[in-house]
Amino acid sequence: MTTNSTLPLSMITPGQTVKLVAITTGRKLRRRLTELGLTPGVELRVMQDQGGPMLLSVYNSRLALGRSMAHKIMVSPA
């Protein structure tokens, strides 16, 4: 599923803006992330990544995601 321009959100550096391509996880977690505004095509900005949860900016809101969850979210450069 990964191509040259698609990689996991967990590999994105702070300050970078990306576009969500796919969520590669189970139905329940995918639904929860969708409820939080993480839908394919949405632009995300990584605000902070210091080894623990990642802090994201989505629709002018902030969202903290664990690294294992971020690894299941596939993104491409915006």
Describe this protein's structure.
This protein is α+β, with helices and mostly antiparallel strands and 78 residues long. It has one domain (7-77): SH3 type barrels (Roll), CATH 2.30.30.90. Helices cover 17% and strands 40% of the residues.
Please describe the structure with a list of short key phrases separated by commas or semicolons.
6 strands, SH3 type barrels, 6-stranded antiparallel sheet, 2 helices, 78 residues, globular
Write the layout of secondary structure elements.
Blueprint: E1 7-8, E2 17-23, H1 27-35, E3 43-49, E4 54-58, E5 61-65, H2 67-70, E6 73-77
Antiparallel strand pairs: 1-6, 2-3, 2-6, 3-4, 4-5
CATH classification class: Mainly Beta
The proportion of residues in beta strands is: 35-45%
Shape: globular
* CATH architecture field: Roll
CATH topology type:
SH3 type barrels
The helix content, as a percent range, equals: 10-25%
* Unreliable runs: none
Please indicate the count of domains: 1
The mean pLDDT is 92
Compute the CA-based radius of gyration.
11 Å
How many H/I helical runs?
2
User: What does the main sheet amount to?
Assistant: 6 strands, antiparallel
Report the end-to-end length measured between terminal Cα atoms.
18 Å
SSE class: alpha+beta
